[in-house]
Design a protein that fits this description.
Thrombin, subunit H; NOL11_N; 32% helix; transcription; activator; NOL11; five-stranded antiparallel β-sheet; rRNA processing; globular; 677 residues; alpha+beta
């Protein structure tokens, strides 16, 4: 997730539809999918074509496949029949019994009880809900009827198994969570013949606080005392807001929450102490940790909720006024780390125990909101120096956010040196201070942008493109007066006093311009070639250093390509000329490595060159001024291919020569002539 690069992609044929979620078999490291209800597909990560993967057509429609870490995959059919995958693959066309009649499955879950998998699913028929508990390997099935609730019906279910007891949690339409306990019975023939048992339920939680009601859409269990509910918070006289909330079921209190302003799909998943949900158009990952529940903590939360109304619903990603004062002082805590761009290096909202006389980071920043510049920066430097190691990164992120917030409120305020010092000396990321680069772009702080591009691992592709466009649009004359770090260019671009590059004779690996002049149909004048054949840098030192910072930024080509298509033609040509210059420079060296600190690698240069040509190919072909550049680039690449092709031809002979050198006695002087055939 941190690199945002797709590791694999598989597609069914046109007209086919994946009809249940794909799962991973933990034992064989294979993927399992079902398309068109009955067609089972199994493949491994290295398989490319899904159509050539293992295929089995089943005799009944599949509702869901559940994969258990130590129990193997379990297949639930729409008719209520259950099979382990191993048994199903022995005879794919085996008859599957219909356990339910006229009922529709609403939810299912699989769990391990000892060494046995247990499958639980709920069904609905004519407003009545039923619960099925089945042990597939023992072929034992129990059916229960859920006690009806007047004027309310279940919206979603979740469950867990503890001490031979299934705890089924039901989120109802009356904004309440109910609990149903189902003992895992010892199966006998007499029990199977007994009449259907009606399950009674008990109220576990009311999803309301200080007059605000949470209209839940999804529910997951975190541990025996905590649940997470995704839904819309409806407060009197206010617009509903979508929120992810965590509740303490033991003491009936709201523990913490996160507002989701971009909206969600209404679905929430939980796996290995991480939440997964769709927020806007991106996958959001939130790490959490539930600590031991205590009465003191719950009472403290309850008192806070009575005095602060709905401000208890905190936004974990912002530092606005009332949110700054929140200090999580309870022994019971939920530590969360939210990520809005599929990257786990994001701002952490870490719960910490504090001494009563110690101000929280949020309270301190709120007190400094209107302080003078000197007082603000002095206090912030002390705060960063004293911050405990576990919370250091989050504290520094809060400090930078406080500075950028003041920059927005006061256009005349901009602590350039302070911000540059923080970025240079601290381990930051874009998601910890998302407004920093936007403020730097507005202030045209090119040095700070250069530092961010070189150090931040998670910059959005749109911001990378904005920086690239800004760098290319600034004139060379203006850049002469701007201080940027030249360490990445000073070692391979030689400059005279008049700022013109020193011409040196270049012999690339396997390439001379005169030797391959006949390789292109277009004859070019020598004086025009000297300007664009890669021997002279098309940009000045400052612009080259800024462009190198862009080349260092991590990106996903799928997300960056649409932005590069909007790059103006002249800027695209200039950038391509610089990339071509770097390509030639890299090829001069035997190890294809440029000297200097943070100099671009040949892989970075080639990746950007290919990406830029993909995005701007039509424009490049149509523009007359790009024709010469494309021609020279084509010649150089073809010469490189020919050169390495010739090297491959003599590779065997060179290896034989190396072997003979090892066999030769090192102390004996001799002259030998080896004929390479």
């Amino acid at each position: 997730i941190s690199d945002q690069k797709p590791l694999g992609c598989w597609s069914v044929k046109h007209g086919q539809i994946l009809t249940c979620p794909v799962v991973c078999n933990f034992e064989t490291h294979e993927y399992i999918a079902v398309h068109d209800d009955k067609v089972l597909r199994i493949w491994k990560n290295e398989d490319i074509n899904l159509d050539k993967a293992f295929k089995a057509t089943l005799s009944a429609d599949v509702y869901r496949i559940h994969s258990l870490p130590h129990g193997g995959p379990v297949v639930l059919f729409r008719g209520g029949g259950v099979r382990t995958l191993d048994v199903l693959l022995e005879a794919p066309q085996q008859e599957i019994e219909n356990v339910i009649s006229g009922e529709v499955i609403r939810w299912s879950g699989a769990f391990m009880e000892g060494q046995q998998p247990v499958l639980i699913f709920t069904t609905e028929k004519d407003g009545d809900f039923f619960v099925y508990v089945q042990k597939p390997k023992l072929s034992h099935l129990h059916r229960y009827k859920l006690e009806q609730q007047e004027s309310a019906k279940p919206l979603c279910f979740t469950a867990h198994i503890t001490n031979q007891t299934v705890t089924l949690l039901c989120l109802y339409s009356n904004d309440s969570v109910y609990q149903v306990l189902i003992p895992l019975q010892q199966d006998t023939e007499e029990e199977e013949e007994e009449e259907e048992e009606i399950l009674s339920k008990s109220l576990l939680l009311n999803l309301s606080v200080s007059g605000a009601v949470l209209k839940g859409t999804s529910l997951v269990v975190l541990d025996k005392d905590h649940v997470a509910v995704l839904g819309s918070l409806a407060a009197p006289g206010k617009e509903p807001r979508e929120c992810l909330t965590i509740w303490n079921t033991k003491f009936q209190t709201l523990q913490t929450s996160k507002e989701l302003p971009l909206g969600t799909s209404g679905q929430l998943w939980c796996y290995e102490e991480k939440f997964f949900l769709i927020h806007g158009k991106v996958l959001t990952v939130i790490m959490y940790k539930c600590e031991t529940s205590s009465l003191a903590a719950a009472v403290g939360k309850l008192k806070d909720s009575q005095t602060s109304d709905v401000s208890l619903f905190l936004n974990w990603n912002t530092l606005e006024d009332e949110e700054l004062v929140v200090s999580f002082q309870s022994q019971e805590s939920v530590a969360l780390k939210a990520e809005s761009r599929m990257n786990l290096r994001s701002r952490r909202s870490t719960v910490a125990e504090e001494q009563p006389e110690t101000l929280s980071v949020g309270q301190l920043l709120l007190n400094l909101k209107d302080a003078s510049t000197y007082v603000l920066e002095t206090k912030l430097k002390k705060l960063m120096a004293k911050a405990p190691t576990p919370d250091l990164q989050a504290t520094i992120g809060c400090v930078v956010t406080a500075l950028t917030d003041r920059c927005k409120r006061n256009p005349k305020y901009y602590p350039q040196n302070f911000l540059q010092q923080i970025v240079e000396t601290r381990d930051l990321s874009y998601s910890l201070c998302p407004d920093l680069m936007a403020v730097a772009l507005e202030k045209k702080d090119l040095h700070l942008l250069q530092l961010c591009l070189e150090r931040f691992p998670d910059i959005p592709e749109e911001v990378i493109y904005t920086c690239l466009k800004a760098f290319l649009s600034i004139s060379e004359a203006h850049l002469q007066s701007i201080d940027v770090n030249l360490d990445s260019v000073i070692c391979y671009i030689d400059v005279e006093l008049d700022n013109k590059e020193v011409k040196t004779e270049i012999v690339e690996n396997g390439f001379r311009a005169e030797m391959d002049q006949d390789m292109c149909d277009t004859k070019l004048p020598r004086e025009s070639r000297s300007r664009s054949d890669g021997e002279s840098c098309p940009v000045g030192l400052q612009k080259a250093a800024l462009l190198n910072a862009v080349l260092h930024a991590a990106y996903t080509d799928t997300f960056l390509l649409p932005h590069l298509k909007n790059l103006p033609a002249q800027q695209a040509i200039l950038f391509l000329r610089y990339l071509y210059y770097l390509y030639v420079k890299c090829s001069e060296k035997v190890n294809t490595t440029l000297p200097g600190i943070r100099s671009p690698t040949i892989n970075q240069v080639m990746d950007w060159m290919c990406l830029l040509l993909d995005a701007q190919f039509t424009v490049m072909v149509m523009l007359p001024e790009a024709k010469e550049l494309l021609s020279n680039l084509h010649k150089f690449v073809r010469a490189q291919v020919r050169f390495y092709s010739e090297l491959n031809k003599i590779e065997g002979s060179l290896q034989e020569l190396q072997r003979l050198n090892h066999l030769r006695e090192s102390q004996t002087y001799s002259i030998e002539v080896l004929e390479i055939i």
